[in-house]
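> call design_seq(struct)
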């Protein structure tokens, strides 16, 4: 032992046989491998640490990927809502313009306006809920007032 520490040896033994094939002794060789074993243990610990770190990073990346996919889905839904809002805005605008400019078809324009305004209100309510989600106090919304 070196200073109270264990010393590790690697041993190789082989029987020595006479001409008849009978064992007459043993030939043995050994050499110290303490440093090699210590380095192997250090390398093993480093590999375990790297595997643990890799697993943590992989979990973080999976979490970030799920968030990105969710955000992409939300953005696609918002784009679809905005496309629908643009279409309804055009219908509403055309109905109002028609109502204001063509007195001969006033009854038809009023019907178109009434038909167009309800989906537009629902869309505006949906957009308002999307842009200003309920904060849990009875459905009221928090809004930032710009002056």
């Amino acid at each position: 032992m070196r200073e109270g520490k264990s010393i590790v040896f690697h041993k190789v033994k082989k029987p020595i046989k006479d001409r008849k094939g009978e064992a007459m002794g043993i030939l043995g060789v050994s050499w110290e491998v303490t440093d090699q074993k210590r380095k192997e243990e250090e390398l093993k610990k480093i590999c375990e640490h790297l595997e643990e770190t890799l697993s943590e990073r992989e979990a973080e990346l999976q979490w970030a990927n799920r968030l990105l996919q969710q955000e992409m889905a939300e953005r696609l839904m918002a784009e679809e809502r905005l496309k629908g809002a643009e279409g309804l805005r055009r219908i509403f605008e055309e109905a109002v313009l028609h109502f204001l400019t063509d007195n001969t078809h006033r009854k038809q324009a009023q019907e178109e306006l009434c038909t167009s305004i309800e989906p537009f209100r629902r869309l505006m309510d949906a957009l308002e809920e999307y842009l200003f989600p309920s904060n849990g106090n009875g459905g009221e919304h928090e809004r930032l007032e710009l002056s």
